[in-house]
Amino acid sequence: MRKKIKMKGLTCSSCIRKITDKLLESEFIEAANYNLINEVMVIDYNGEVSIIKETKRIKKIVNSFEDGIKVYFEGEIVEEESSFIKTYWILFVGLIVFLVGIYLNNDWVILAGYIFFVSKIARKAIKSMFTKISFDENMLMFIATIAAMYIGEKLEAIVVIIFYTIGEYLQNRAVGKSKEEIKSLIDLKVESGNCYKGGILMQVAPEEIEVGDRILVKVGERVPVDCKVVHGSTSIDMSSLTGESKPVDVTSGDELISGSINLQSPIEAVASKEYTDSMIAKVVEMIENSSMNKADTEEFITKFAKWYTPVVAILALLIFLVPTLIDYSNHMDYLRRAAILLVISCPCALVLSIPLTYFAGIGKSASMGVLFKGSNYLDTMSKISDVYLDKTGTITHGNFVVSDYTDLNTLLLAASVEKYSNHPIANAILEANKEELVELNDIEEIAGCGIKSSYEGKIVLVGNARLMKEYNVDFEKQDASETVVFVSYNGLYMGRILISDQIKESSKGAIERLLSEGINVTMLTGDNDKIASKVAKEVCDISYKANLLPQNKSEYVTNLKSEGNTLFVGDGINDSIALVNADVGITMGQRGSDLALEVSDVVILNDDLSLLSKTINIAKKTKKIVIQNIVGTLFIKVIFLTLGVLGVSTMWMAIIADVGVSLIAVLNSLRILSHKVD
């Protein structure tokens, strides 16, 4: 059982890790993952739980690590309030007391100001001790300031707290701002829709709309569920969902995807899916769950921070104890060095900026209509060496039309069979046929071959040459560069239907871009060699493999995984196995089947293949910024740590190495949002 718990105001990466670890100690919880964008902890329970009891328990855990966080199950109505004054009022009081102490030159008043300043950090440090996590950044800072006070550097001790608290606030503000920027790129939620219930038009939640319900979409409103237009015509803006800036004209009979916006005139439509099965719900779910699949770098930083802090604390203790035992007369200087080391070594810059960078990369991709199911796929995509493309619906439009057929009886029998299929070729045959369909029995779809059925007790076969050979039908082989559908009845060949398709305008340019970046591109198709060769030559003369069954595509991709990182792009049920077995599986979402959307790792919502190279570009940029933050942060900290151990660093320099580096890393992470993608 999955539950979503809102944790409003929780942006501290270190706290998130500790809270998650604490939750996982429960025998009732199988998994817990926090989504920073939506501030939601997604918890998988191994049974039924009491919401009231769980809320209390989780609130207690959250409060043991962080103050001012609102905890409630998603769906509950909770009053919004600013936590700024509540969280930081002590800082202002402490600042006033401190300034009065300076003015009066009174150590006791200065000390009182220090107590005000240090109380928040001390409280969080003590909470950590009682939750079996003895060392964290608050504990480091608390010990550092006590040490500074002990050696007589009262001003520096208080300034450390001031800048640490201000830095913490600025970091949280930066994270909060970036979170809102990312969320605004992918904020697709539909609040309500206009639906006829019992003949009366009323405003209802999208979840209340059922398949077959008639809905009204007014100008400026979002389409609440996937539906088909039955009355009226208008222009639809799908930019927030697919990244496509150009409005799309729709009229009666056209399909509409949920989340798109009506720009021109009111239209009436019939719901074709419930909200939970609609595109908008799947997109929102993918975004919310994107934090569950973390990149290796992100996982490493989380584990690194868990062990790094106590190691640093022990190192600081040794830096003080060892030389003090040898030369006690300078123990105050050694204590100062240890305190500076504790401030410098705070891991905030890494634990904050690395997850944020991946979130920014996912958000930037989403703004173009490309959705990742996790940062691990974004990370892998930055290292792609081989791309495998399905032909139909990926390189070509997949909008098939019947260009020729043997006779009307052949077309009629084929259409009667194909009405049981959702394949684009089946739709083309049905559209071409104008006669009344006949009733068939024993329908059996044979993957990669076609459909077998029976009419008046006789076997009917509609499919490719492979199907004819399998049932020993003597058919006329076709030397055509178009898709050929053969029809047989009672073991005898009846005729054939020719189906034509068009290459997408964006395909050639997209493939040229991939090739120019040194990526190998191969087309995989179930079509015959002549069709495959013609399409491959038209799109940069790429290599191809023809006459492939679904399992052949999968085997081909799987066998080449050891040679590099593989990416497969497809759109249909027949591509699902290959999508799973590739390092990264991408579905062309607008045409993709529900199964393909489910098993893929990335979804391109508007079927534009040119977005593939752009997404790889974003993935590489994200990885580059991650490396910059790791290398830059560690480099600066190592320099300051070395100076600190040698006694050269001051507490001011330590503050810069901590707060300054954290802010720089956060700002560097946000560069991905303004990155121009060619």
Write the layout of secondary structure elements.
Elements lengths: L1 E7 L4 H11 L5 E7 L4 E6 L5 H13 L6 E4 L10 H21 L2 H24 L6 H14 L3 H32 L7 E5 L2 E5 L9 E4 L9 E5 L2 E4 L1 H4 L5 E3 L4 E2 L4 E2 L4 E5 L7 H10 L7 H31 L4 H14 L3 H20 L2 E3 L2 H7 L2 E7 H5 L5 E5 L2 H11 L5 H9 L8 E6 L3 E6 L2 E6 L1 H6 L12 E7 L2 E9 L6 H10 L3 E5 L4 H10 L4 E3 L4 H10 L5 E6 L5 H6 L2 E5 L5 H6 L2 E3 L5 H36 L5 H20 L8
Parallel strand pairs: 15-22, 15-24, 22-23, 24-25, 25-26
Antiparallel strand pairs: 1-3, 1-4, 2-3, 5-6, 5-7, 7-13, 8-11, 8-13, 9-10, 9-12, 14-26, 16-21, 17-18, 18-19, 19-20, 20-21
Helix pairs in contact: 3-4, 4-5, 4-6, 5-6, 5-10, 6-11, 6-23, 9-10, 9-11, 10-22, 10-23, 11-22, 11-23, 12-22, 14-15, 17-22, 22-23
Explained architecture:
The strands form five sheets. The chain has a seven-stranded mixed β-sheet with strand order 14-26-25-24-15-22-23, with helices on both faces. The chain has five domains: 2-73, Alpha-Beta Plaits (2-Layer Sandwich); 84-183 and 291-358 and 621-674, no CATH class; 210-273, Distorted Sandwich (Calcium-transporting ATPase, cytoplasmic transduction domain A), CATH 2.70.150.10; 375-397 and 503-600, Rossmann fold; 401-500, Calcium-transporting ATPase, cytoplasmic domain N. The mean pLDDT is 82. A hairpin with a 3-residue loop joins strand 17 (441-446) and strand 18. It is an alpha+beta fold.
